[in-house]
């Protein structure tokens, strides 16, 4: 690491106050979530009749977009934060999707599900919350059914402070100071593509499963052999 490279500073794990949950839900995630779901479906295809699990589902916004895009999809959303799930339940009810989206509270580092239980495991923007990201990635890999898909996306920690400031300016330049601070803290807490590759190697996933997919995101895509 050179002098100017950014050292990782992990942020708080759970987003578990009523204010954080309401604040997160009120932000505009539409473009990012639509792209996440489209990219996932391009890899996995439509539902095969099993269940997709969304790890760190927050207020269930991604399950709602996925349920609309794939009319047969059944989704289990899990999160450790009760306040996020409370808002999530309201969102699911509002879209009348409680028959297809189930929400459960659990710690993503030790999920109460059997090996290979889900036809796909998806996750957006949780890895940077976890002090030891290998714990959660190991759990996600464990849950993928034979022939199923793992699709995980998160922010990348920029190489230096100048790049971090530029991303905050580009994506939160017109937002309130608190929103700019949140994005800056999340970027500083994020892992790099190289760090994800180090984590997945002992799990038996090739380094090529992860790569940059925007100026600020990495995506990990892996299929468990059928
Ligand atoms: C930035 S939000 C992303 C929410 C959602 N995936 C989205 O893209 O809208 C991260 C979520 O991960 C959850 N989280 C963090 N650590 C967790 C853990 N150990 N177990 C379960 N959920 C966790 C937080 O409570 C929060 O809801």
CATH architecture assignment of the largest domain: 3-Layer(aba) Sandwich
Adjacency order of strands in the biggest sheet: 3-2-1-4-5-7-6
Oligomerization = single chain
What value does the Rg take, in angstroms? 17 Å
Question: Share of helix among residues?
Answer: 25-40%
Give a description of the structure.
The chain is α/β, with parallel strands linked by helices and 226 residues long. The protein folds into two domains: 18-156 and 191-223, Vaccinia Virus protein VP39 (Rossmann fold); 158-190. It is built from eight helices and seven strands, in the order ααβαβαββαβαααββ. Strands 3-2-1-4-5-7-6 form a seven-stranded mixed sheet, with helices on both faces. Strand 6 (210-212) and strand 7 (217-223) form a beta hairpin. Helix 6 (161-172) crosses helix 7 (177-189). The longest helix has 15 residues, at 30-44. The site of S-adenosylmethionine (SAM) has 21 residues, from helix 3.
Outline of the structure:
The protein is 40% helix and 20% strand. The protein is α/β, with parallel strands linked by helices and 226 residues long.
Q: What order do the helices and strands come in, and which of them pair?
A:
Layout: H1 18-26, H2 30-44, E1 51-55, H3 61-69, E2 74-79, H4 82-94, E3 101-105, E4 118-124, H5 133-143, E5 144-155, H6 161-172, H7 177-189, H8 193-200, E6 210-212, E7 217-223
Helix pairs in contact: 2-3, 6-7
Bound molecules: S-adenosylmethionine.
The site of S-adenosylmethionine has 21 residues, from helix 3.
